Amino acid sequence: MPQVNAVMGVRYSSPEVSIIDIEGDISASSNQVLTDAYAKASTSTTRVIILNFLELAYMNSSGIGLLVTLLIKANRQKQQMLAYGLSAHYRHIFQLTRISDVIKVYTTESEALAFASKLL
């Protein structure tokens, strides 16, 4: 079994907005930890999930696939997904893969929260 090099924390900005703090790597081995974090973040009142990438160390194509799976789950729950803290490299990858078309990317948490408040 591959070693998991990821830690995901969940914070609740409000009853409608949850933040998943991603630390470490997002790859196939982080599937369960990311799924668990989403399950914890997705309450009955959650309308926006914000992904915090400030402490992201590495993400590969399997990690991108996991984010797409997470996005599908969020869409089924009628939740909007936002992100912040991506490095220039990962912002570029989000643009190339067109993930940034469906997960709006912000520089800071306060920018993401300000947009989230407009969605509520």
From TrEMBL:
Domain spans labelled STAS: 15-116
Keyword hit for Transmembrane: yes
Membrane-spanning residues: 49-72
Alphabetical UniProt keywords: Membrane, Transmembrane, Transmembrane helix
Nucleotide-binding found in the keyword field: no
Cross-referenced Pfam families: STAS
Official protein name in the record: STAS domain-containing protein
Organism listed in the record: Dictyobacter formicarum
